[in-house]
Amino acid sequence: MKRTTRIKSKLAVAFSSYFLKAYNHFTLKHVNQHEDCPETTLTKPLSECNVALLTTAGVHLKSDTPFNVDNPAGDHTIRIIPSNTEEEDLTVTHIYYDTKSAKIDPSIVFPLKQLNSLAEEGVIGSVADANIGLNGGILNTALVEAESIPKVIERLKMENVDAALLVPG
Amino acid sequence: MVTILPEITEKVGVPRVLHVPFKLGRPCGEPFDFETRRKVLDQLLQLLKKPSATMIEYEV
Questions:
Q1: A47 touches chain B (CB under 8 A)
Q2: Is residue A86 a contact partner of residue A63, using CB atoms and an 8 Å limit?
Q3: Which helix (H) or strand (E) holds B47?
Q4: A residues 97-116 near B, CB within 8 Å?
Q5: Given CB atoms, is A45 within the 8 Å cutoff of chain B?
Q6: ipTM surpasses 0.90
Q7: Which secondary-structure segment (H or E) carries B17?
Q8: CB B15 to CB A165 under 8 A?
Q9: Are A58 and A133 spatial neighbours (Cβ–Cβ below 8 Å)?
Q10: Which of A18, A76, A97, A136 could form a disulfide with B25 if both were Cys (CB 3.0 to 4.6 A apart)?
Q11: Which positions in chain A touch B2 (Cβ < 8 Å)?
């Protein structure tokens, strides 16, 4: 991470920590209003569902290329996290929230271990073989909408995912 | 979806939202608070059974 990115990150984290209302207002200004809410419902019992975890908290395998946080436009690429990934093999790369805690305990932004437990207990049918790590904080979402989202949808369909749980940073 | 900022998820039109009272960067609770971790997941999964445009508040 470049020094300028590190400074930008400290300022952004301080802003969101001490001025949460202003941060909320700022984010709202950069989000498009969607009038229609997608009409989707579960078509089978939870105990038969293949469930995927998806996060914008910048989670990825330690062995994977980190998100490029030095790019001022953000990094809209996708990271795949297999269901059998151990927590010690996960890390986070993000500049818009304090990642110290997530690096110690990734489950605070990516509860994969707990989701696997739920599958073992039969609460859900299974955890998807491919779970999704993304890097949020991207203000201009053109590339996210044109490239990232279609790829995520394609991958979730390929994995026969019935439901996706979304977790922010 | 878990949200810490429900106005944003409402504006975006997220179908099912669990509003949690946690800090930014800790949407599923504090580090090593596995009881909360489990509760968040349990409530998220129950949310899946609800119709679209549902937001529920996290129950401690």
A1: no
A2: no
A3: helix B34-47
A4: 97-99, 101-102, 104-105, 107-109, 111, 114-115
A5: no
A6: yes
A7: strand B16-19
A8: no
A9: yes
A10: A97
A11: 165-168
Cα distance between residue B44 and residue B29, in whole Å = 14
If DSSP codes are grouped into helix, strand and coil, which group holds residue A129? coil
Per-domain boundaries in chain B: 2-57
Contacts of A109 in chain B (CB under 8 A): 25-28
* pLDDT band with cut points at 50, 70 and 90 for residue A70: very high
Per-residue confidence (pLDDT) for residue A36, from 0 to 100: 79
- Interface mutation vs chain A, best among B24, B43, B52, most A CBs within 10 Å: B24
Domain ranges within chain A, ordered by starting residue = 43-167
Both tokens of residue B56? Answer: 């529920």
Residues B7-55: pLDDT tens digits? 999 999 999 999 999 999 999 999 999 999 999 999 999 999 999 999 9
Give the residue among A103, A109, A19, A97 at the shortest CA–CA distance from B27.
A109
As given in the structure block, the two tokens for residue A146 are 């044109």
**Does pLDDT of A105 surpass 90?**
yes
Contact yes or no for B48 and A42 at CB 8 A: yes
Helix A112-120 vs helix B34-47: crossing angle, to nearest 10: 70
**pTM for this entry:** 0.94
B19, B30, B37: best to mutate for the A interface, most A CBs within 10 A? B37
